[in-house]
Each structure stands twice: as C-alpha cells, then as structure tokens.
C-alpha cells in the first residue's frame, strides 16, 4: 500500500546519467533495466557472471575493460552497483560482502580516535556491537538518542561529532526519523542513513540531505534469503574514492555470484515491496484488534507517532511489524502467560511465519529480538524487552498470514 504522497513513480535519473539521451525511467522500469544493457557480442538479456579472479591486460597497467583483479572490482559487481545507484538516484555505489562490512568501512573512514557518533537508542544490535566494542576500544565515543525526536538528535551533537547514524524505520521498534530535519541540524557531521528497512522503493535519503546511504542488500534488495551483501551509496566523489580504497584494501568485496543474485532480485523489487507493504498493513491492523497484543509498532498505523513523517518522506510504510505481547496477569487477556513467555510461545506456534533471523525475503519470518538479533545489547541502555516480537511480513496470501497469527494467538496458554 502506498500513501497519497507516494514517490515510487518518480523518475530515476542519477547525476551521472543527466546527459544521457534516454528518457528518465520510473522506478519499476529502472529496477528491471538499470545496471546492464545487453552486450553487442551475444546479446544476453541477463547480466553475465564474470567468474574470474583476474583480467588480462593489454600492456603494463593497461586495463582492457577497467578491471584488473576482482578484489578491486568486477564487471558483474559493477553492474549491481550501477543498478543500486540508479534506484537511490545517486552518482556512486560500492557493493560489499555484507551489510556489516559496509558499516565497518564507512565508520573507518568517517571516525577517528576522539571522535563521537550519535545513533538510535534501538539501533541494530550488530551495529551497536561494532561501535561499542570495536570502535570504542579505538577511543570513539557514542551517544544513543531517540532518533524519532529531531530536537533530541540535534541536542546530542557535540563539537567532536563526526557521524549521525540513522535507521528509519529503526530495527526493531520501527521508529521514524525525520531525515530532512536531522540533515539541517547536522553541522559538519556526516549523516549516514541505513535504508535497509525502507529500500529505495520507499525512500531516497540522499534527496533528503543524507551524505551516505547504507543497505544490507541481504534484505529487500536481494529479496529471496539466498544472498549476503551490503552497499554504500553517495553523491560525494571524494568519499566514494575512499570507500573504494577501503573496500579493496580490506577485501570486503562480494562474490560475483552474490552480486548476480542481488541484481536479479532487484528486478522484482517494486512488485515485491507493493505486496510487502499491503500485507504488513493488514497484519498490523489485525494485531491491533487482538487482546493478546499490548502494542503494535507499524508506521502505517495512524496511532504510530512517526506516521506523519513517514507519510511525508516515504511512498509506503514497509514490510516490518513489531508488537509487544500483553501480560496474562491482566484479567482481560485470554491467556495466563507472562508477556515474555507469550512472545516466545507465539513465535513457536506460527506455521506460515517461520522462526528465523533476518528479514526482507519473500517468505514471512518471526523472531524475538531480545533473544535473537538484539541479544548483544542485553544489559545495555539499548536492551530490547523480551515481550517484543518482530515480523518480517512476506508476499504470501495475506489471508493465510492472518489466519496463521490468529491460530497462534488462540493457542497461547493452552
């Protein structure tokens, strides 16, 4: 489902294409066509997999096609990068072996001993672990803040703040950050937006003032739970050169097979996201109606505190839903379980929603973040309560998904 301020039909013409003769494409067309044009030799409709570690040179350091060694670049990977850049309406993209590899690379570039980073108080657990345990030992300070409060973000900025790290929606509480407002307040700090949950179909952070966009391409871009990858996107040519240098120097390049699978997944991104959004809206509305559920987090609900911002800066509300289970001690709750036990039982009772980490695939998944994806933040200020479940709503028939949740909720306490 898309809202009245939808932008997913906006044309996708990146800065490096501005002089091209082809007409600007709308998103769904760009998703299918971006990144590759059938070659003149064989006319393959699909991007070839260049399964080669090295490339023949025409002379000493005379590169035939611009490639020398796959750790530093490969035609298949470059095609994926062009496609993602097109969809984010950006000039530059570099693909990585994972979302965390991309995270590590941009933090290596933007942070230095003594610098400071602002990040959400429900940031992805792996990101917090990297910043706290790895970069913390390097002398990096960090402040966690309610990223949905732009004034609080601005107040958290210090003279040594180098990075403002934004997820929107956040993982797992689906907080919405006002990217444009934060961009206006960031000063000299770089604004990095993790756009994994939204995907470029729903949101283009660079258009709103972000300096860098990050994706775990494992999720919605790949879309089929069969690939691991990441990407960094920017319009800053100098920063892109630094990203490329770090990636080549550390070897965080994706495999050509993963790049091919991700590029193939992108072709159906528009149609998948339409179904993800529609299904998630219906699931969220169903969960609101159930007495076993204490609270539902989904930006498509008018009750969500970030609903108006999401409606303004996104073309839809995404495929992720989180909910807190009610405590069975309440006489109005039809089960006798504690909220933590109810959350765990719900995840074990579903059939169509498989119990697994990750998200963004065509299949529906359910998990308890406190004991799974966010276990590493237990005991910190970012701890996620054990009564929370997170659902990655897939593209199955929504009636089957709702029926599955209904039977799982009905079975609580039995």
Which helices and strands appear, and what pairs or packs with what?
Layout: E1 11-12, E2 25-26, H1 27-33, E3 57-59, E4 62-63, H2 75-87, E5 92-96, H3 99-110, E6 116-120, H4 125-135, E7 141-145, H5 150-156, E8 161-167, H6 179-185, E9 190-194, H7 199-202, E10 212-215, E11 230-234, H8 237-250, H9 256-266, H10 269-288, E12 293-297, H11 307-313, E13 320-325, H12 339-349, E14 354-355, E15 365-367, E16 388-392, H13 398-410
Parallel strand pairs: 6-7, 6-8, 8-9, 9-10, 14-15
Antiparallel strand pairs: 1-2, 3-4, 5-11, 10-11, 12-13, 13-16, 15-16
List the total number of helices. 13
Main sheet specs: 7 strands, mixed
Radius of gyration over alpha carbons? 22 Å
Residues in helix, %: 25-40%
Number of strands: 16
Topology pattern, helix = H, strand = E: EEHEEHEHEHEHEHEHEEHHHEHEHEEEH
């Amino acid at each position: 489902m898309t809202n009245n301020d939808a932008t997913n039909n906006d044309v996708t013409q990146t800065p490096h294409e501005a002089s091209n003769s082809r007409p600007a494409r709308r998103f769904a067309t760009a998703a299918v066509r971006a990144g590759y044009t059938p070659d003149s030799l064989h006319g393959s409709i699909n991007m070839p997999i260049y399964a080669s570690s090295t490339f023949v040179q025409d002379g000493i350091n005379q590169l035939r096609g611009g490639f020398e060694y796959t750790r530093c670049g490969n035609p298949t990977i470059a095609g994926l990068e062009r496609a993602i850049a097109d969809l984010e309406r950006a000039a530059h993209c570099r693909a990585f072996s994972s979302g965390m590899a991309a995270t590590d690379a941009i933090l290596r570039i933007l942070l230095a001993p003594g610098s400071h980073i602002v990040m959400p108080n429900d940031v992805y657990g792996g990101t917090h672990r990297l910043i706290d345990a790895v970069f913390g030992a390097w002398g990096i300070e960090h402040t966690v803040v309610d990223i949905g409060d732009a004034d609080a973000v601005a107040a958290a900025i210090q003279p040594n703040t180098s990075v403002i790290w934004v997820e929107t929606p956040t993982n797992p509480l689906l907080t919405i950050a006002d990217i444009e407002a934060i961009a206006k307040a960031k000063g000299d700090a770089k604004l990095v937006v993790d756009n994994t949950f939204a995907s470029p179909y729903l949101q283009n952070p660079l258009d709103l003032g972000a300096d860098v966009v990050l994706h775990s391409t494992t999720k919605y871009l790949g879309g089929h739970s069969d690939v691991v990858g990441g990407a960094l996107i920017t319009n800053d040519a100098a920063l892109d050169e630094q990203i490329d240098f770090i990636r080549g120097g550390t070897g965080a390049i994706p495999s050509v097979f993963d790049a091919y699978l991700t590029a193939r997944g992108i072709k159906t991104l528009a149609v998948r996201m339409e179904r993800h959004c529609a299904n998630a809206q219906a699931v969220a509305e169903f969960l609101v109606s159930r007495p076993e559920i204490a609270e539902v987090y989904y930006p498509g609900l008018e009750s969500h505190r970030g609903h108006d911002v999401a409606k303004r800066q996104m073309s839809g509300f995404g495929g992720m839903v989180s909910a807190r289970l009610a405590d069975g001690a309440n006489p109005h709750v039809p089960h006798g379980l504690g909220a933590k036990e109810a959350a765990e039982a719900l995840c074990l009772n579903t059939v169509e929603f498989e119990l697994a980490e990750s998200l963004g695939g065509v299949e529906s998944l359910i998990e308890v973040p406190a004991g799974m994806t966010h276990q590493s933040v237990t005991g910190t200020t970012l701890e996620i309560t054990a009564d929370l479940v997170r659902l990655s709503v897939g593209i199955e028939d929504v009636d089957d998904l709702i029926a599955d949740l209904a039977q799982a909720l009905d079975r609580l306490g039995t």
